[in-house]
Design a protein that fits this description.
Blueprint lengths: L2 E5 L2 H7 L3 H5 L5 H8 L4 E8 L2 E10 L4 E8 L8 H15 L4 E7 L3 H9 L3 E5 L4 E7 H10 L1
Parallel strand pairs: 4-5
Antiparallel strand pairs: 1-2, 2-3, 3-4, 5-7, 6-7
């Protein structure tokens, strides 16, 4: 599969917003994504197969860490390696931006996403009161992994 990664544009947002809930996932609201796209501290990317958007992901740059806001693959393209491609690009971006820590929150029930993160040496660091697991990894540790990719 020839997947290409690009920064998310307003046109990409217009394309995915009508199908976001049905074909990607229902937990992410269109207005939240729209405001993230206009946020100078956020960076969003899309994965395209030819011209079709088959996934997207985003990070938010905090003071001393990068937080993964979302990573979603279109339902009928899952488990074909696109999630890994998106996450590798987020890690590359994080490294390029000069950050040393990347964090994310994942629902305790979401074992598929957790497996993806485990592939990249994310470690569970605490369980929040919201019952979301807050995972983090030190980029210094996974520089070696990036070299292996
Ligand atoms: C989580 C998600 C982004 C993974 O994307 P994907 O393209 O399906 O993932 P990949 O094909 O790159 O697989 C990465 C790893 O995840 C795990 N995985 C993916 N799909 C799986 C499935 N159906 N069953 C079991 N493990 C699975 C595997 O460990 C896989 O690696 P492996 O096949 O080498 O063992 C995707 O399932 C998704 O969009 N889920 C809904 C949104 C979501 O939950 N996002 C995360 C929010 S924290």
């Amino acid at each position: 599969m020839n997947i290409n990664i690009y920064p998310m544009t307003q046109q990409d947002f217009n394309t995915i917003s009508p199908i976001l809930s049905a074909e990607f996932d229902d937990f992410w609201t269109i207005s939240a994504l729209k405001s993230e796209l206009g946020n100078p501290n956020s960076s969003y990317i899309v994965a395209k197969l030819n011209s079709e958007i088959v996934g997207f992901a985003g990070i938010w740059k905090a003071v001393d860490e990068v937080h993964i806001m979302d990573i979603v693959v279109k339902k009928n393209y899952r488990h074909q390696g696109i999630g890994k491609i998106l996450l590798e690009e987020l890690l590359r971006l994080t490294k390029e931006l000069g950050f040393h820590v990347i964090t994310l929150e994942v629902n305790a029930q979401n074992t598929i996403a957790q497996k993806l993160y485990l592939h990249y040496n994310f470690k569970e660091v605490r369980i929040s009161k919201k019952l979301l697991w807050y995972w983090a990894r030190c980029l210094n540790l996974y520089f070696t992994c990036i070299d292996k990719i």
